[in-house]
Amino acid sequence: MKEQSGKKKKKNKIGWTKLFYNNKFAVCFSVVLTVILWAVLVSNDTQDRPTALAGVPVKITLSSTMQADGLKIFNQSDKTATVYVKGNSLTVGQMKPTDLVAIAPSAASITTPGTYPLMLQVQNADDNINGNGYTVNSISPQQVIVTVDRYQEKTFNVQDDITYKSGYQSDSSYFVGAPAHSSDTVTISGPEKQVSQVSRVAYEYEVNDTLKDTKKFTAALVMYDANGNKVEKGDMTVNPEKIDVTIPVMPRKTLKLNATFANKPAGLSLSANQVQISPENIDIAGSQDVLTTLAGKFNLDPIDFSSISPTHNTFDANISLPATCKNLSNIPTAKVTLNLTNMATKQATVSSFNVKNLPANENASVDTTSLKVMAVGPQDEISSLNDSSVIGSVDLSSKENFTGKTEMPVKFTVSSSSGCWVYGSYMVTVNVTKKGQ
Description:
Elements: H1 2-12, H2 16-19, H3 23-43, E1 51-59, H4 64-68, E2 71-76, E3 80-87, H5 89-94, E4 100-103, E5 114-119, E6 121-124, E7 134-140, E8 143-164, E9 174-176, E10 180-181, E11 185-191, H6 192-195, E12 200-207, E13 215-224, E14 230-231, E15 237-239, E16 242-247, E17 249-258, E18 261-262, E19 275-278, E20 281-285, H7 288-294, E21 297-299, E22 303-304, E23 314-318, E24 326-327, E25 333-338, E26 343-350, E27 353-356, E28 362-366, E29 371-378, H8 379-383, E30 390-395, E31 404-414, E32 421-423, E33 426-434
Parallel strand pairs: 1-4, 8-12, 17-21, 18-22, 27-30
Antiparallel strand pairs: 1-3, 2-8, 3-7, 4-6, 5-8, 8-11, 9-17, 10-16, 11-15, 12-13, 13-14, 13-16, 17-20, 19-25, 20-24, 23-25, 26-29, 28-33, 29-32, 30-31, 31-33
């Protein structure tokens, strides 16, 4: 039984190699193979069927003379083209779009600004492709349109076109300042014909709600011609195209001005009717914290008492606000007038001088033996003033490591009076030496 089964299986096994010795099978197989080869050859026939190369660069070049004259291509309708080639299958099959370039020889004849249609031609981009192995069947598009002009650049100040909605109500307790820009200027560059149309550059913004806090926003810049019409960007470059805008909004207050003094005698008091300030008040704007700290008044820059006398009693004192505040009154100084009718003057001869802030390794002496000075003070105190009551003092803190003779300013104190002072500025000669010399 086993032998019969094995013989049966052997008998049913197909011998594929013997098929090729069968004439009918060989004929059929040859026909099928011929059809397949024909289909492959037809699909790869680059002699009669063009192959499309999409993305071939289009390069338009003006003559070197015109480029030197300032002409430039600002707009080109197409940057790439599709080129259809035929030829040797090995050559065409390996070609890439970057192996070719589309040019416009007629561009070399352009001599003036304008818009020109230029016919395209195809050539090898380099020597890697055999020019004899293919032919150009066609190119799409066949022409490009270019805009040629001279380059121009202009810079404009950025203007504000801020409007307020109908019925807008402002709050008088707040100050709305001038807008601040991330860039105060804008540069417009591009074709001369387009740039020359621009007359001004601004941004537009509408305020809808009552401003009580600083407003920040980003706005696009808009170009206008001389007639106020908007100018489209076209081929121009706008730098920057947008800006950040800040509209400062701060609380405002009216502050009473207060006169202050430097080197005022400790025992001298000036009543309110002896100090007149004009103006008495100023309007300022600032942060709420700063305004709270000022508490409704502001101190003027101090007036040195050495500059005050019964005949020299009117001064311009600076109003030096904190950097974060704005002087809405736009008054940089206030006039301070002192009523000194109860004061008298007396000349004194000073012969007593001392030196302070002298380095430990130095000696100093005042070579000036005496100075005539004018003392000022209440009449009863001036009448009892004598020369020995006035003492001069020289500060050498600014003369560190200095040796030799030099002139220095001297300040005075009146030892016998708490309400008198010395009017004017005076200099003495000081001799500074190193110890041990």
